[in-house]
Task: inverse folding
């Protein structure tokens, strides 16, 4: 236990130095609490379990995290492992902030109902939880990263299966996550440890080779480093000069990707110069370039243009007197901390505005992703999107005005154009990269300056763009454009079809297309505009014949009524008025007293719908929508058809079913639900399925007060970009 005692003392001492005696007492309490909870547990290596949370806390301290995070680090496994320890207990003892952080970590660690889900699903779900908690409080994820780092460092004691699984997960999730948060030092170590367990042979081979070469390089650079120190002090620049070996996994990746041999890499060793101020950075660069010849195209100013993960430094590659190229990185102490600990360093330099903006951007990106994904039924798509768009490998390109845009590796000028603005994408005609015209499928590289040439003559995207663009968002935008485009085609086709149908019946469409006719027809079908009506005909949602018959019907009725009224007028009588008789269910039945009335199940008529009554054999009058298929066949028995209409007061609620054709992506249901919620509509059933064309069909039933409300609902749903079509069924 000697070691454990030392460990506790060291952590406490360092912690007190930074946060004071009072906070130190809280930490001491937390340690005692964790010791009690974990007293019967051991690590795989045989150590008392509590060494693990203590180590995690010490990492967090070293990263510069705040006191609550470090205390939560000590407690991070107590709720998970302790019997009867709840978040409430922690809140009472250590306060809300600490307990919330522990709760976040616990939620991440706890896997769901393992009897139901596969390992893969479990991982996916864990990942989803990870991102959710990240949006809540990014410190939860930093604790998790420290936890993972310690577990990876002690992975040697696990079974080979567990080693491989953890290493893979670390390489796929935690290392990229650390990178996106700019936590370079953690990323490097997580990668190297994963590399070691996933590809032990390649790892050992490279380590041996690199070890030899690095020593040679280090020796070769010794004189350069000495000279640099001397020159800096002569120039009155206070700075540290050190040699830094590149970490193994990134060396491995670089060799794999570019087919390089080890001795072709310039940056096996980099010289790092750490100075006090930004001005000193540029002054030191001046000294470097005055002493050694810089290699063209290798100078990068990440101070003026920081990487999106907040990394700042000057990079240059120079040649020494023996013709050996080597890389030099120049940065301030603060930039150095940020490069190593990324957003964790934010707690060290809280006033750093740049860091804060980047942090905000990042969390808002995560929030966006999560908000759109909240209702997705399984999290597979969620995770794929996040991995692709958030953790994937990035390039950084520039707008002509010098703004940095990050895009996934493999992105094209079209992706860039759509990222700038949807309309820039749609009207993109060509692109210049670094001043030269390029093809639209050109693969952009980091530091490319991209200029998009647009033209209004370019009416929209072409279909083959779908196979050119790399980002999901550009793809979606192009697809949506084509959906809208089809709509125009559908409108034109629908109008033609209706005209032809009219011709077949010896009618002129123009006389039938009176607003009072088509508005009535559209109202019955809850269609909004004449274009919508054409489009519905065009894509086959309703037949042209059906619409024509309704128009004709209205036209004839009007003619008949005009005729009757003319005759009445000639006879000197009042114009005809319909007779009314009150009845049940908000329905007036003309001419027939006291029959039972019920709504047909086939078409669920709503107040406002045109309806007919059918006198059933012994069950009273069934009410159908006038356009109901069954009702149309019932018309064959004209004696049983009875005229009915809606009473003024409406029945309070009716059931209605609608069908939506939507863009098949997670988040769509969420948008639809939001609309229904905002309209106070209760959904009673929902069925959804994907189509072969990449759309999805949603059938939903809810209660409404009448066709007016249904119309409002449909209109609002149609406004959603996700909704391609919405109609009543
Ligand atoms: Mn742990």
Result:
């Amino acid at each position: 236990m000697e070691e454990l005692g030392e460990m506790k003392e060291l952590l406490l001492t360092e912690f007190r130095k930074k946060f004071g005696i009072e906070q130190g007492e809280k930490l001491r309490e937390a340690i005692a609490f964790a010791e009690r909870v974990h007293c019967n547990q051991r690590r795989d290596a045989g150590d008392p379990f509590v060494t693990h949370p203590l180590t995690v806390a010490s990492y967090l301290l070293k990263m510069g995290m705040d006191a609550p995070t470090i205390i939560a680090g000590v407690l991070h496994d107590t709720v998970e492992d302790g019997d009867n320890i709840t978040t409430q207990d922690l809140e009472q003892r250590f306060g809300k902030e600490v307990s919330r952080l522990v709760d976040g970590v616990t939620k991440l660690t706890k896997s769901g109902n393992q009897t139901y889900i596969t390992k893969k699903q479990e991982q996916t779900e864990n990942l989803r939880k990870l991102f959710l908690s990240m949006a809540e409080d990014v410190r939860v994820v930093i604790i998790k990263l420290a936890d993972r780092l310690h577990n990876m460092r002690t992975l040697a004691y696990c079974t080979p299966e567990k080693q491989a699984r953890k290493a893979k997960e670390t390489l796929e999730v935690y290392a990229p996550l650390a990178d996106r948060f700019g936590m370079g030092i953690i990323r490097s170590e997580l990668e190297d440890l994963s590399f070691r367990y996933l590809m032990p042979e390649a790892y050992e081979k490279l380590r041996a080779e690199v070890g030899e070469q690095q020593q040679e390089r280090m020796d070769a650079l010794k004189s350069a480093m000495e000279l640099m120190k001397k020159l800096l002090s002569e120039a009155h620049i206070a700075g540290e000069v050190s040699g830094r070996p590149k970490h193994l996994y990134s060396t491995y990746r670089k060799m794999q990707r570019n087919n390089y041999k080890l001795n072709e890499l310039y940056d096996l060793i980099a010289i790092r110069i750490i100075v006090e101020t930004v001005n000193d950075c540029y002054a030191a660069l001046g000294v470097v370039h005055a002493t050694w010849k810089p290699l063209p195209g290798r100078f990068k100013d990440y101070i003026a243009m920081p990487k999106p993960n907040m990394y700042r430094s000057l990079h240059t590659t120079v040649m020494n007197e023996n013709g050996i190229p080597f890389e030099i990185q120049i940065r301030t102490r603060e930039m150095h901390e940020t490069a190593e600990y990324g957003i964790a360093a934010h707690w060290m330099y809280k006033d750093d505005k740049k860091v804060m903006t980047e942090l905000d951007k990042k969390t808002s990106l995560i929030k966006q992703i999560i908000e759109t994904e909240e209702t997705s039924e399984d999290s597979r798509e969620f995770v794929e999107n996040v991995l692709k768009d958030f953790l994937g490998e990035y390039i950084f390109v520039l707008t002509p005005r010098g703004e940095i845009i990050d895009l996934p590796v493999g992105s094209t000028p079209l992706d860039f154009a759509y990222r700038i603005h949807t309309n820039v994408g749609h009207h993109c005609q060509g692109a210049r990269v670094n001043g030269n015209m390029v093809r639209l499928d050109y693969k952009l590289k980091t530091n490319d300056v991209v200029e998009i040439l647009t033209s209004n003559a370019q009416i929209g995207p072409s279909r083959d763009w779908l196979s050119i663009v790399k980002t999901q968002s550009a793809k979606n935008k192009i697809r949506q454009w084509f959906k809208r485009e089809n709509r125009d085609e559908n409108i034109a086709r629908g109008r033609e079809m209706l005209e032809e149908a009219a011709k077949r019946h010896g009618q002129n469409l123009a006389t039938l297309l009176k607003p009072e006719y088509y508005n009535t027809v559209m109202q019955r079908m809850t269609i909004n505009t004449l274009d919508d009506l054409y489009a519905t005909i065009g894509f086959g949602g309703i037949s042209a014949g059906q619409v024509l018959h309704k128009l004709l019907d209205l036209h004839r009725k009007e003619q008949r009524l005009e005729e009757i009224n003319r005759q009445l007028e000639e006879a000197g009588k009042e114009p005809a008025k319909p007779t009314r008789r009150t009845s049940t269910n908000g329905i007036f039945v003309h001419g027939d007293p006291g029959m039972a009335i019920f709504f047909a199940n086939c078409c669920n008529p709503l107040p406002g719908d045109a309806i007919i009554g059918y006198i059933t054999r012994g069950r009273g009058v069934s009410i159908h929508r006038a356009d109901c298929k069954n009702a149309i066949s019932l018309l064959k028995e004209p004696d049983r058809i009875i005229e009915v209409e809606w009473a003024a007061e409406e029945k309070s609620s009716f059931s209605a079913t609608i069908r939506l054709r939507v863009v098949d992506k997670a988040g769509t249901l969420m948008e639809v639900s939001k609309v229904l919620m905002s309209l106070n509509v209760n959904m009673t059933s929902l069925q959804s399925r994907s189509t072969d064309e990449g759309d999805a069909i949603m059938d939903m039933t809810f209660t409404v007060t009448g066709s007016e409300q249904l119309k409002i609902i449909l209109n609002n749903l149609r406004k959603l970009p996700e909704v391609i079509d919405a109609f009543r069924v």
The pocket of manganese (II) ion is lined by residues 52, 76-77, 147 (CB under 6 Å). The CA atoms of residues 68 and 95 lie 9 Å apart. The longest strand covers residues 654-663. The chain has a mean pLDDT of 80.
